[in-house]
Amino acid sequence: MKALVTCSLFFSAAIIYVLNVISSRSSKRPPSPRGWLPLLGHTPYLLSPSCHLTMRKWANELGSVFLLNILTKPCYVISKADLAARVLSTRGPDRFRKAPQVYDPSLELTFGAPTLFNDCKEDEPYQAFRKGLAPAFSDKSMRAVYPVIRDVAQRLKARWQALALMADPSKQGEALDVSPWMQRCFLDIIGAAGFAKDFNALEGGHSSIFQVVHDAILVYDRRSVQPLEAPLCRLLPMLPIAREANRAMAEVRETFSGFLDEFKARGPPDVNDTRIWAQLMRVKDPQTGGPFPDTLIKGNIAILLIAGYDTSSWTSTWALYDIARSPDCQRRIKRELHEAGLLQVPGQPAARPLEWSDLNLPYFNAVLKESMRLHPVAGIGTVRVAPKNMELEGFPIRKGDLLWVPIDAVHNSVHNFTDPTIFDPARWLPETSNSSDKKASAASSSCPNGTASNGPDQGAAQQTLMPSASSPPQLSSSSTACGCPFAPKATRTGQAGAQSKSMLPFSDGPRNCIGLNFAYASVRTVLLSLLASFWFELGDDLKDHTLVEASQSLVLVVQSGIPIKLHLKQHEAPEQSVRTP
Ligand code: HEM
Questions:
Q1: Does the keyword Iron apply (predicted)?
Q2: For the chain, what is the radius of gyration of the CA atoms?
Q3: What integer pLDDT is reported at residue 231 of this predicted model?
Q4: Atom of ligand 1 minimally distant from the CA of 103
Q5: What angle do CA 152, 154, 159 make, to 5 degrees?
Q6: Alpha carbons 164 and 84: distance in angstroms, whole number
Q7: CB 291 within 8 A of CB 209
């Protein structure tokens, strides 16, 4: 009997292997990376914390569409930006829904309820939450919570200023690991600006919410690369790893249940309050006219908090890293801040407070955009299902096949960007665009990632926060190019508009990031507040950029495996222009 089973397994593996070889030679199929295994396909490559880097390499080697076998399922990887945007933006019955195989594991974090993030059917509850939450992310809402965001940014700045690093010369050699600080800061931002809650994560040393969410994310993440862990833990709950995971998940569920109890106890939100918590309490089930079940609301609270803070904190951490390794760019940002009266220099009159309108500083925004291109924190991207038999770039796709848009590979591949590995903010400056590109960038000026809309029923109003790519940067006359040591001498002209379309840090189409405006408002506020007061230099471990790039790993979002340690230094008094250390 055993021999029979072994034989038939071997036989079916051989057949699948032969079929795959035959089909991969067919001219109708896109290229496929070598090294797939019978039955497993390319799956082992994908169960790795650096699989986004493998996708980047394959995209550069194989071109804009290539084929993976996930177990025995075909998965078409699309890294050509315009094709990816077309797939993601398709609406109506033929839209490409999210693939349950990929999103279902996150149900564990959301009380088993399909939420804004992991609902793959997109039926009534999804539509109701997406539409109901939209006002929380509108321009008007973001302006209303801006002072709260700025307060938290000021608290972080004060904490860093108070660190002996600044005052004690003997500690000048020590660099600060900025990422845990950023995580606490963005937890406090989403707490206050989204949920009207003071988490006190910045001050609290070991604030419980920080620990609880962190532990749950680790379990989720481990299980993403070890898919057998969850079933094994269900089978053998007495195993230490199962007990630990159950504790972490129970704590996160208890925490978010507590949130909902508190929100209900607050009573109906004030009509003028459009923060996330208030909008969540307002969402009604169109069938009954009453609220949705508690599990669905709690699940959405969990996903909005988790999706919101980790992404934004790592985006800011990577941006500080990129700024610190490009002193000329940093100097140019300082100049921009100085000209706007925002640079805080010791011995000089106090800088004016950062206002909402300052979030549009053009050169700073080009730097942030370039950092988000090189280090898109949701770099793993999104996996969708083909709604019907169709053709994609001439390749036949069958209903149910998977389509994967790996955002990191889109941003870092040669078919979308010239010299993609180079950090060059100048590629986003309108002064380097030709007239036809200016038109393109003006068309997409309401949104740096070129996204035309933000969700099924959200109007363009949501996008007005974005910087105007067409307005000229206010810089000293001498500076027209970035001058970064990392940028090649010849500035790429005429690319800002065209390349904007290749930016997908928040995905695209009706399932793009609902929190885009919140993310931009908070990331810009925090970074500008810090840049107005500190000069950043890389810690010694970060001097080798290739090492930092290679150390990237996916822990919910793309992080650096090497702590991002930066020296914080004060500015010197500006003379004619800003002098920095
Ligand atoms: C820089 C920060 C952020 C980045 C780069 C980012 C990126 C993304 C991306 C790429 C997606 C699509 C994921 C997929 O299709 O699998 C997404 C979805 C989502 N994001 Fe964000 N995000 C950020 C901040 C936020 C914030 C601040 C919130 C909320 C407060 C948020 C809430 C969500 C939600 C709920 C979804 C699912 C939306 C849906 O499918 O309808 N994100 N985000």
A1: yes
A2: 24
A3: 87
A4: 16
A5: 95
A6: 48
A7: no
When the pLDDT of each residue in the chain is averaged and rounded to a whole number, the result is: 83
Whose CA is closest to 125, among 290, 10, 319, 1? 290
Q: What share of the chain is helix, strand, coil (3-state, %, to 5)?
A: 50, 10, 40
Token duo for residue 393: 């770039």
CA distances from 170 to 166, 360, 565 (A): 10, 38, 17
Q: 138 C-alpha to center of ligand 1: Å?
A: 15
**pLDDT tens digit string along 349-378?**
889 999 999 999 999 999 999 999 999 999
Ligand 1 pocket list (CB less than 6 A) = 116-117, 130, 190, 194, 303-304, 307-308, 311-312, 315, 377-378, 382, 505-507, 511, 513-515, 518-519, 523
**Angle, CA of 81, 84 and 85, to the nearest 5°:** 85
State how far Cα 467 lies from the chain centre.
19
CA 145 to CA 313: how far, in whole Å? 18
At 530-557, the pLDDT tens digits run: 999 999 999 988 989 999 999 999 888 9
User: Domains (ranges, CATH) in the chain?
Assistant: 127-569 (1.10.630.10)
Q: Is 466 helix (H, G, I), strand (E, B) or coil?
A: coil
User: 280 Cβ partners below 8 Å, 6+ apart?
Assistant: 129, 132, 133, 263, 297, 300, 301, 304
The amino acid that residue 376 corresponds to is P
How many degrees, rounded to 5, is the angle at CA 504 between CA 112 and CA 120?
25
506 alpha carbon – ligand 1 mean position (Å)? 6
